[in-house]
Amino acid sequence: MTDFRPMRRNRQQLSEEESIEILQKATSGVLALLGDNGYPYAVPISYVYADGKIYFHSALSGHKVDAIRSCDKASFCVIEQDDVKPEKYTSYFRSVIAFGRIHIEEDEAEKLAIARLLGNRYNPNHEEALQKEIEGGLSRMLAIRLDIEHLTGKEAIELVRQRGDR
Predict the structure, then answer these.
(1) Assign residue 20 a region: left if phi > 0, alpha if psi is -120 to 50, beta otherwise?
(2) CA 76, CA 102: separation in Å to the nearest integer?
(3) What's the rounded Cα separation, in Å, for the pair 21 and 34?
(4) What is the secondary structure of 111-145 as a DSSP string?
(5) Which residues make Cβ contacts (< 8 Å) with residue 95, sequence separation at least 6?
(6) How far is it, in rounded angstroms, from Cα 46 to Cα 31?
(7) Which of 113, 119, 102, 29 is nearest to 66 (CA)?
(8) Torsion over CA: 22, 24, 27, 33 (sign)
């Protein structure tokens, strides 16, 4: 396990429970990988969080897939709130960053389970439609899993003060 640096402004750090709540509520974030020629590659992507892992899907090939295959370290950022306060030259924000190891899931049963997780997250209670989509598209889809090693959430100091609990 890698040591991760502590948050500098720790009064603004969200609890693990608050960070997980944000991951469970949000529907998209930015996945950051090591891309071509050593350049960072950050891509907006839909996801689902479950049991300490973040799941994604992808086409069978492309920049994201090449980056994952060449380096398994990744981070994923979700912004829950970004309330710009122009008169104060600030933003009242809440965000989460997950760091971990990312893998393409090769096991067919796991791939199917991830497809179901994603399908139920974005179109719940439509099992027949999901089954049809899976039957038609599973062979053209990669299932991707990010095993979280470090999770950190942060909010604007103004939000901390408003809550008065830190």
Answers:
(1) alpha
(2) 10
(3) 27
(4) HHHHHHHHHHHHSTT-HHHHHHHHHHHGGG-EEEE
(5) 22, 77, 78, 79, 80, 81, 153, 154, 155
(6) 9
(7) 102
(8) positive
Give the list of residues 6+ apart from residue 39 with CB closer than 8 angstroms, or none: none
CA 138 to CA 107: how far, in whole Å? 12
- Taking only the tens place, the pLDDT of each residue in 23-51 is 999 999 999 999 999 999 999 999 999 99
Amino acid identity, position 3: D
The residue ranges of DSSP E strands in the chain, in sequence order, are 13-14, 28-34, 40-46, 48-50, 53-58, 73-85, 90-105, 142-155
CB 11 within 8 A of CB 166: yes
The two three-digit tokens of residue 96, written as one number: 């989460």
Q: In this structure, what token pair is assigned to residue 25?
A: 């509520």
The C-alpha atoms of residue 15 and residue 24 are separated, in whole angstroms, by 14
d(C-alpha 54, C-alpha 76), whole Å? 9
Q: What is the pTM of this model?
A: 0.87
- CA 68, CA 73: separation in Å to the nearest integer? 8
Side chain identity at residue 111, one-letter code: K
Summary mean pLDDT of the chain: 89
